[in-house]
């Protein structure tokens, strides 16, 4: 964590077309909080409005400062990203546009926010579709993996990419079944690696000024976890519960159940490729 005070509730003008407002929802999984971005100068797009927090919605209303809002745009529907869309839509009259709704019910332990079951967009953007305003164009880029409905938004006028939770500057993204999919996540990273975006603006953590370098490192991290799993299974068949203490040695044990879900995402991808098999919660090399 960077030293406090953090700019919670303040408007930070980070580029001529981009301002940022930090929500007061810091946690071990959100870093200093969810960062909401305002794109434009006269008419605006609001990206990832954040949690349903009255103070954050008030801060966004102050930042909007009476300007028209063309769209409230959500990258995905975890509850630290989309719930404020409803209050902000009521305050501004703007439509909610972006990712598709997603309703996942699971009792599995999570290391991220659960889903916003009340998210109801006025329009869903398909891959490649764009929203436009005065002097700005935001094009949707489908990046499933963290969630199946995850979108990034490319600001064409400044070669910036708003990456939501797909790529963050402070941590790797959480990929947790039943909706998180490791194969989709790696494919989405590969897609980003082919692009030439100048900078990433994630929903949590600092801007990423060397995007392709970070993406390459993130892929390497996931491949290293995969090799670690294969080494453990080469020794003997194991359950996820037996692998986690070895793989996450030194990590707070309170996080081990959620870490087990990340291991499961890797194992499911390896199972689909025919590399491993599972019988009664015991995983083995095929």
UniProtKB/TrEMBL annotation:
It holds the Pfam family WHD_BLACT. InterPro entries: LACTB2_WH, Metallo-B-lactamas, RibonucZ/Hydroxyglut_hydro, Sec-metab_biosynth-thioest, WH-like_DNA-bd_sf. It comes from the Bacteria. Residues 33-204 form the Metallo-beta-lactamase domain. CDD domains: metallo-hydrolase-like_MBL-fold. This is Metallo-beta-lactamase family protein.
């Amino acid at each position: 964590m960077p030293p406090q005070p953090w700019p919670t509730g303040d408007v930070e003008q980070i580029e001529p077309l981009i301002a940022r407002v930090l929500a007061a929802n810091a946690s071990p999984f959100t870093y200093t909080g969810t960062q909401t971005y305002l794109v434009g100068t006269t008419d605006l797009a609001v990206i990832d409005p954040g949690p349903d927090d009255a103070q954050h919605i008030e801060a966004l209303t102050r930042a909007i400062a009476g300007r028209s809002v063309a769209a409230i745009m959500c990258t995905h529907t975890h509850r630290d990203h989309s719930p404020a869309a409803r209050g902000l839509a009521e305050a501004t009259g703007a439509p909610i546009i972006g990712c598709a709704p997603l309703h996942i019910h699971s009792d599995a332990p999570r290391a991220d926010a659960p889903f916003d079951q009340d998210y109801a967009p006025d329009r869903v953007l398909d891959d490649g579709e764009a929203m436009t305003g005065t002097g700005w164009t935001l094009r949707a880029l489908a990046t499933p993996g963290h969630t199946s409905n995850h979108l990034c938004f490319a600001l064409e006028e400044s070669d910036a990419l708003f990456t939501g939770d797909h790529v963050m500057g402070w941590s790797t993204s959480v990929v947790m079944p039943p909706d998180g999919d490791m194969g989709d996540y790696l494919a989405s990273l590969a897609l980003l690696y082919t692009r030439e975006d100048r900078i990433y603006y994630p929903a949590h953590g600092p801007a990423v000024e060397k995007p392709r370098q970070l993406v390459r490192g993130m892929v390497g991290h996931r491949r290293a976890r995969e090799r670690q799993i294969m080494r453990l299974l080469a020794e003997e068949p194991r359950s996820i519960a037996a692998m986690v203490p070895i793989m996450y040695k030194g990590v707070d044990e309170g996080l081990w159940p959620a870490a087990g879900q990340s291991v499961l995402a890797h194992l499911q991808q390896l199972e689909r490729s025919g590399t491993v098999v599972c019988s009664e919660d015991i995983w083995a090399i095929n």
